[in-house]
Write a structure and sequence with these properties.
The protein is built from 13 helices and 9 strands. It is of the alpha/beta class and 297 residues long. Strand 1, helix 3 and strand 2 form a beta-alpha-beta unit. The structure holds 1,1-dimethyl-prolinium. This is Glycine/betaine ABC transporter.
């Protein structure tokens, strides 16, 4: 009996809601706060270059969490510019972010929780070489193998470059200021005379920092170092074909899982040069959402 009355009541309530909706003709009055956030952003996640592993993960997240958002490809630089603009005006924005990154030092940001684990857990950044580099260039191999630094190191370099420092100058200064660390990377390696090492990288701020630092270290050991900036797919293809001798930009186990499995017979993974990396959807702290699930509301 009571149950029936509730049913009747809710039917009445629904009819009133429907009438209100039709009657006012203005959709915004019936929308929830979360929907209006999505609308303000045109249901767009501000992404980076299409080849980035994180873009594939973000698209997977849209599917797995059943979101009506689209992941818009652009570039790392366009993404940080969009973030800067939104932040200035306290507007909502969702970006494909990652750590280490200077953006966390500059803005108050948070990763959206990812209860389905689409973006993986802790990532590390590995050094991957073309098979055969060990025999061909044992000294470069040794240095690349021993290259390891921390998120703090990388962010220090990134921040100075972002503040307008010349990339090569910043890398050089960091090497001068961190002689002890760098001497561990070069330990046991002999100086060479003018041999060439090709490093490929993508214009992600984190990889601009790491590739320039290790490139300069190799140069100080007598190598002629060629840095080639490409997209993520071509970067992996280059180290697989031998066009590049090495990359220091392999984000694993999740972000570049597909790339390394495609090329595993042609490359050798020298292991992490940086631990404690992370990728995910990032928003300013002033946004009233905490989880990717909140975007499905
Ligand atoms: N990133 C930065 C890259 C790896 C380095 C997270 C944007 C990606 O492939 O997604």
């Amino acid at each position: 009996m009571i149950k029936n009355n509730w049913k009747k009541l809710s039917v009445v309530a629904l009819s009133i809601a429907a009438l209100t909706f039709v009657g006012c003709g203005n959709k915004t009055e019936t929308k929830t706060a979360d929907t209006s956030i999505g609308e303000k952003m045109n249901y767009k996640i501000t992404g980076i270059d299409a080849g980035a592993g994180e873009m594939k993960l973000a698209e997977q997240a849209v599917k797995d969490y059943k979101l009506k958002y689209t992941v818009q490809a652009s570039s790392g630089a366009a993404m940080t510019q969009a973030l800067a603009d939104a932040y200035k005006n306290k507007e909502p924005i969702i970006v494909t972010g990652w750590s280490p990154h200077w953006m966390f030092g500059k803005y108050d940001l948070k990763y959206l929780k990812d209860p389905k684990g689409v973006f993986g857990g802790a990532e590390h950044i590995d050094t991957v070489i073309h098979k055969g580099v060990k025999e061909k260039e044992p000294n470069a191999y040794k240095i690349l193998d021993q290259f390891a630094w921390t998120s703090t190191d990388m962010e220090a370099v990134m921040l100075k470059i972002n503040d307008g420092g010349d990339v090569k100058e910043v890398a050089k200064q960091w090497i001068t200021d961190n002689k002890d660390k760098v001497s561990k990377w070069t330990k046991g390696a002999k100086k060479v005379d003018g041999k060439t090492i090709n490093l490929a990288y993508v214009a992600w701020d984190s990889e601009i920092a790491s590739t320039n630092v290790i490139g300069l270290v190799l140069e100080d050991m007598g190598y002629k170092v060629k840095l080639t900036q490409v997209d993520a797919g071509p970067m992996w293809a280059a180290v697989a074909s031998g066009d590049a001798d090495a990359i220091v930009s392999a984000w694993l186990p999740a972000t570049h899982a597909k790339y390394i499995s495609d090329y595993k017979d042609k490359v050798e993974n020298l292991g992490p040069n940086l631990q404690g990396a992370k990728v995910g959807l990032v928003v300013p702290k002033y946004m009233n959402i905490d989880s990717i699930e909140d975007l499905a509301k």
